[in-house]
Write a structure and sequence with these properties.
two-stranded antiparallel ribbon, alpha+beta, about 190 residues
Length: about 190
């Protein structure tokens, strides 16, 4: 047997990992303080990106039926635009658990400039209406969806929605051609 294959993995000293992580965070905080965000620049950039065209604007919100009502809100696409435009955010997401019936994802968003950290978890079902467990591919897709939802929720808890709401409203106007959701939906149905 070769010497390469019989070597035991090296044990990394936890204090070294801690020092590296601390150094990374300190550098990010220092950079955030050296290059602070401009709320006006954020709004301009996010609005430009989100309303680039009707298709992009439409991807920035969702409307879905739930219990006889319409649930509407900003989507993960708008959250991604907000995160990249807001600057000085550190975002992470990962699947943290898989049970018999649900998968759970966690997202962390840290505003390095204001030192605000929010962590959100979201669980999604991985069984169908008949009680059968999803296939492995569908479980991966559901985990990705849960990660996106958790990330969206965390971003909109860190970035004040007062900054986001005008962008969100403009996206709906651009996507619907200035029409309300009900009018645009009816025109679409009438088309067919």
């Amino acid at each position: 047997m070769s010497e390469e294959l019989t070597k035991q993995p090296e044990i990394v000293d936890a204090s070294i990992v801690t020092q590296l992580t601390r150094g990374e965070v300190e550098m990010q905080v220092a950079t955030a303080n050296r290059f602070p965000r401009s709320v006006d620049a954020f709004k301009k950039k996010a609005l430009t990106l989100a309303t680039k065209d009707a298709e992009t604007a439409q991807s920035c919100f969702y409307v879905m039926p739930r219990g006889g009502k319409k649930i509407e809100g900003p989507s993960i696409r708008l959250a991604e635009i907000v995160a990249t435009s807001y600057k000085n955010l550190r975002c992470e997401t990962r699947v943290v658990g898989e049970g018999e019936k649900t998968i759970t994802a966690q997202a962390t968003v840290w505003d390095m400039e204001n030192n605000v950290l929010i962590r959100c978890e979201t669980s999604r079902r991985i069984v169908g209406k008949s009680g059968n467990r999803y296939s492995d591919d569908m479980i991966v897709m559901t985990g990705n969806a849960a990660s996106s939802i958790a990330l969206r929720n965390a971003i909109f808890k860190v970035v004040p929605f007062a900054h986001v709401k005008p962008i969100y409203e403009k996206c709906k106007q651009v996507a619907l051609g200035g029409k309300g959701v009900d009018q645009a939906k009816q025109e679409w149905l009438d088309f067919f």
